[in-house]
Structure formats: C-alpha cells, structure tokens
C-alpha cells in the first residue's frame, strides 16, 4: 500500500503498506506512538541530569565518570544517528523504530540495575546507540506520513512534546530520586521506561505504516566507519581530557578528526558517483535552509550541553539543594519552553518567519546575562524565587527556537532522503551537546579546580564562579547562533523542492 502522503507526492515515496490517504485516522495514532517514543528519549536526558549528584554519591563516581554518563549517551547517540536514519530508509522506518525502542527499553533496565559506574556508563552507551536507531525514524515517519500542508501543525505538536518533556523530566527525576522508592535511590529514573517502552512496541506494531526509500539502497559500511571514527576522535578526548590531564594524544586525535571528516566527505562524493547510495546525501547541503539549519543545530546543541549539566551541579552540589528543590526550581523554565514552543509554530512563525528564531536566540542570551548577574549578586544565598526571572526568559527564548527550527531544516528536503536528513539533524545537535559536555571540563571544572575549595562556603563560591564563567560562554554561543540564523530562509517554502 501507499504511504499516507499527499497525492502529488506519491511518486516520491510509494513503499508503504496501508490503504489510508491523508484523511486516514490511523496516522494520528501512529503519530501518538512515535511522539511517545520521542518523549521517552527527551525525558530520559533531563531526568538523568537532575539525578546526577545522587548517582555520584550512591556509586562513589568521580566527576569524570559523571560527565561520561551524560556525554557517553550523547556520543553513542551522535555516532549512530546517521546510520540509523539510513537503515530506516533501506530496511523500513517502522522496522528500525521497533528495533530501537525495544533495545532502548532493555538498555534502560540495565541502567536501572547498574552495580557500579562502569556498568552504568556501558549501559548508557547502549541506550544511546538504541536511541540512534529509534529517534531518526520519528521525524522520518512524520515526514512521509503527513502532507506538506499539515506538517507545520504536526511539528508544532512535536515542539509541544519537546516542551512537555522539558517540564516533566526534571520534576519526575526529582520526585523519583527524592522518594527513594523501595530503597532504589536514583534507579527508578531508568526503570520507569520499561512500561512505556513495552506499550510503544505493542502499539507501534499495530498502527505505524511501513515506509522505505523508493530506490534500492545499500548500507555504506565504509562511510559508517569513517564518520563514527571521526566523531569518536573528536568527542572522546574532549570529554576525558580533564580527567586524564589533557594528554598529547588527545589533542592529536581531535586535530586528526578534521582529516577523517574530510576523508568521509571525499568518500561520500565518490560513493554517490559510483552507485548513488551514500550514507549522507551530500546534495542535501545544496538546500540552503537545510545547510543553515544544520549549523544552527550544532551550535545550539553546544549551549544545551554546557548549561544543563552545569546548572544541575551548581544547584545540588554548589548550593546544596535537594533534587526536589532543584527540580521545582527548573519548573518555570520548562513551562516557558513548552508555552513558547507551541506559540512559535502555530502563531508567530507563519507571520514573522525567521525573526522569531532570532528573537529566541537573543531572548535566551538576555536570560543568561540576568542569571550571571544574579549568581554574582546573591552568591550562595540565592533563592529559587530570585532565579525565576532569568529562567522564564531563557525558557521562552529556547521555546521560540526548538519547534520551528526542525520544520525550517526539513521543509525543503526531498521525501526519499527524509531518514538521512533526520539522522543528520539529530546527529549535529547531539554532536553539539557532546561538545558542550566536553567543554564543561574547561569552562566549569577548570574554574573549580583553580579555587581548590575545602570548606562548604568555599565550595559554594567556587561553584558560583564556575557557573558564571560557563554562562558567559553560553551567552557568546547564543550570539553566534543569532548571526547564523541570517542564513535561514525568511519564510518557510510553501512546498518541498527536489534536489537535482
């Protein structure tokens, strides 16, 4: 059967197996399933952040291990996303989605029963790899299931889910950690994925319609090795550098990753000429909205990687707050993200276009600057109420970016390359997040190490100084994002265009 897409687009992707057209209500049930999976992934990231100090205490983990628990997930996620998207194009997006959500659920169980930091890190790597199979199929399934005129509304819903994940993740993580259910400490933050994942597998098998790329494609094994190697050479030394004393081999690896990336691009060009089945469809970068959006996604990921980890450590270790206190403090931020994300796609972007995203970047930067001033002004006596204004401003700015940016990047992408494009979108953001987490060693822990604090007051002062220093970096990157957004199209294209 044909994919439930607009009739004008059936020549692009005619590999699905259901009888429904655009009016088929099953596609909305399929949307609910894939969005639930996306929600599970989003919650998993935010829920772990809030529980990091508890994991550190319970497993006697070093700061390096804690950093690796978060960055390891991002690294495995980034390294596998392009491959996951292409596998969906080749073998079927439904099949890969079900494989990914099954593996993600099993990896969550392993995380929940981890006996030491090493096992938790390994389980998080597996969880990230399985998410890399699952997440690209979410956007790809949406892209091939809904016609162009409905995608704005659907991506608006997707943005609202992002916001909801941001709202519920920290609070749910705080509650589960604080309650210490059955004496399991932080472990329920992972185990809660089990019933959700099982339901997603059952409902996904029933309601998601299969789709593939219309041409017979093959997996580009050499491309997989090159891009994965380049990502590992860049992110692993950056993440482990501080813990290992910034060895020479780490700097050489990071420099060498540029050469491997260049070799990857050259190979992909040759692969395209040879059999038309590369891992990354380089012609996508001829689409201006896609190329510009990818650059914005990368830099935006850096800001998220730096801010969320530093923010959690600042509140719970620097200020000595409980997980619940920290989670409730972040609630206004999450609500602002969710509200602004819905408004941006539904109301603001159709009227003002690119200016909405640029306003979001500047708004977020203003919130960061307010936060820097307050951290210096109030020191260790700062309260949740005093954090409210900067968090609301930052959340509103982030919400104006997250939902419309996805639509802007994918708006002109040919339907047959939707899996590859979705993988690239998520890969560059995860690359940015992993880079940001690696930079935490420099912009946050570097400041704390210099202070050599031993008393509680000195620790609080050191963490406040590190927090402010990290936020200056975040503000600078947000200004860069604002400038990059000038390369985005002023308005969304009315219909998708094919790339020659």
From TrEMBL:
Q: Which sequence ranges are marked TM in the entry?
A: 28-52, 64-84, 96-115, 121-142, 154-176, 188-204, 216-236, 248-268, 289-314, 326-344, 356-373, 385-410, 431-448, 470-488
Report which superkingdom the organism of origin falls in: Bacteria
Listed Low complexity bias regions: 1-19
Which residue numbers delimit the Major facilitator superfamily (MFS) profile domain? 30-492
Q: How does this protein lie in the membrane? A: Multi-pass membrane protein
> InterPro entries, from UniProt?
EmrB-like (IPR004638), MFS (IPR011701), MFS_dom (IPR020846), MFS_trans_sf (IPR036259)
Recite the UniProt keywords alphabetically. Antibiotic resistance, Cell membrane, Membrane, Transmembrane, Transmembrane helix, Transport
Q: Which Gene3D superfamilies match?
A: MFS general substrate transporter like domains, Multidrug resistance protein D
Cell location: Cell membrane
Looking at the record, which segments are called Disordered? 1-22
Which named protein is this? MFS transporter
The record lists the organism as: Streptomyces camponoticapitis
Query: Top-down, what is the taxonomic lineage of the species of origin?
Result: Bacteria, Bacillati, Actinomycetota, Actinomycetes, Kitasatosporales
């Amino acid at each position: 059967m044909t994919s439930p897409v607009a009739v004008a687009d059936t020549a692009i992707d005619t590999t699905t197996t259901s009888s429904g057209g655009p009016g088929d209500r099953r596609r909305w049930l399929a949307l609910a399933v894939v969005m639930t999976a996306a929600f599970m992934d989003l919650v998993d990231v935010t829920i772990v952040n809030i529980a990091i100090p508890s994991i550190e205490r319970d497993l006697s983990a070093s700061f390096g291990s804690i950093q690796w628990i978060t960055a390891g997930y991002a690294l495995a996620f980034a390294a596998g996303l392009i491959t996951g998207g292409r596998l969906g194009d080749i073998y079927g997006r439904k099949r890969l989605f079900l494989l990914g959500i099954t593996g993600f659920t099993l990896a969550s169980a392993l995380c929940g029963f981890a006996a030491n930091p090493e096992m938790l890190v390994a389980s998080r790597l597996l969880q990230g790899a399985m998410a890399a199979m699952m997440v690209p199929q979410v956007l790809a399934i949406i892209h091939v299931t809904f016609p162009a005129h409905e995608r704005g509304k659907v991506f608006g819903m997707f943005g609202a889910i992002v916001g909801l994940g941001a709202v519920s993740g920290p609070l749910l993580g705080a509650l589960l950690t604080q309650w210490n259910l059955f004496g399991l400490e932080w472990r329920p933050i992972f185990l809660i994925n089990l019933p959700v994942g099982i339901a997603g597998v059952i409902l996904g098998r029933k309601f998601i319609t299969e789709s593939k790329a219309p041409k017979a494609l093959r997996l580009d094994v050499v491309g997989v090795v090159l891009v994965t190697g380049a990502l590992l050479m860049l992110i692993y030394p950056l993440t482990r550098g501080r813990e290992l004393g910034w060895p020479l081999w780490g700097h050489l690896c990071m420099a060498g990753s540029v050469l491997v990336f260049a070799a990857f691009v050259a190979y992909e060009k040759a692969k395209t000429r040879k059999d038309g089945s590369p891992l990354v469809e380089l012609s996508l970068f001829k689409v201006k909205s896609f190329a510009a959006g990818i650059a914005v996604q990368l830099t935006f990921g850096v800001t998220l990687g730096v801010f969320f980890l530093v923010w959690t450590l600042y509140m719970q270790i620097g200020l000595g707050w409980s997980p619940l206190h920290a989670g409730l403090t972040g609630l206004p931020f999450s609500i602002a993200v969710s509200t602004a994300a819905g408004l941006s796609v539904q109301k603001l972007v159709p009227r003002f276009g690119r200016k909405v995203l640029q306003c979001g970047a500047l708004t977020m930067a203003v919130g960061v600057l307010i936060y820097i001033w307050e951290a210096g002004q109030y020191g260790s006596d700062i309260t949740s109420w005093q954090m409210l204004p900067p968090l609301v401003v930052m959340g509103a700015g982030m919400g104006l970016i997250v939902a419309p940016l996805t639509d802007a990047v994918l708006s002109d992408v040919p339907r047959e390359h939707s899996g590859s494009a979705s993988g690239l979108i998520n890969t560059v953001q995860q690359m940015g997040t992993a880079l940001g987490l690696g930079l935490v060693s420099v912009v946050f822990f570097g400041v704390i190490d210099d202070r050599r604090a031993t008393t509680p007051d000195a620790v609080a002062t050191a963490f406040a100084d590190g927090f402010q220093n990290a936020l200056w970096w975040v503000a600078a990157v947000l200004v860069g994002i604002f400038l990059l957004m000038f390369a985005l199209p002023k308005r969304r294209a009315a219909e998708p265009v094919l790339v020659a």
